[in-house]
Amino acid sequence: MTPLEHRREPRLPLTLSVLLTASGGYAIPARLRNVSRHGLFVEAEAPVPRNALLHVELTLPSLAGQSRFLLPVYAVHTTERGAGLVLTPGDPEAAEVLGRLVKSAAGGRIRLRRLSAG
């Protein structure tokens, strides 16, 4: 983390294919590049609108096989190559999924119990 960054904790590298979605059929393929307990950075195939409320759609291994999850996020920083996204508050299941991604990025395995998937 540089002195100018305002993150509560550093982001850890993690690469995963995801889809950014919003109401009205908005969907952008993207690659998750780093993650923290509060947010993530994605490289997107198209511009991500700043201040947009989105969902990060991802598929992860779970005890039931593969599970699809929708993480509600807010685009707080956008660049030509991607977007910094912060998890919106109030969704404990999304927070658990993000926490498991952080654990995986730190060298652990992703092991999720079946959560409500979108």
Q: What features would you describe in this structure?
A:
Helix content is 12%, strand content 48%. It is mainly beta and 118 residues long. The protein has a 6-stranded antiparallel barrel. The longest helix has 14 residues, at 92-105. Mean pLDDT is 84; it is low at 112-118.
Question: What are the key terms here?
Answer:
single chain, 118 residues, disordered C terminus, 1 helix, 12% helix, globular, mainly beta, Thrombin, subunit H, six-stranded antiparallel β-barrel
Summarize the structure.
The chain has one domain (34-118): Thrombin, subunit H, CATH 2.40.10. It has one helix and six strands.
Describe the global form: globular
Number of strands: 6
Distance between the termini: 33 Å
What is the domain total for the residues? 1
Tell me the β content.
Answer: over 45%
Contiguous runs where pLDDT drops below 50 for at least 5 residues: 112-118
Question: What would CATH call the homologous superfamily?
Answer: predicted glycosyltransferase like domains
Helix content: 10-25%
Mean pLDDT: 84
- Roughly how many Å is the radius of gyration? 14 Å
Q: Give the SSE string.
A: EEEEEEH
CATH architectural designation: Beta Barrel
What is the assembly state of the chains in this entry? single chain
Number of helices: 1
In CATH, the topology is named: Thrombin, subunit H
Layout of secondary structure:
Blueprint: E1 12-22, E2 26-35, E3 39-44, E4 53-62, E5 65-78, E6 82-87, H1 92-105
Antiparallel strand pairs: 1-2, 1-4, 2-3, 3-6, 4-5, 5-6
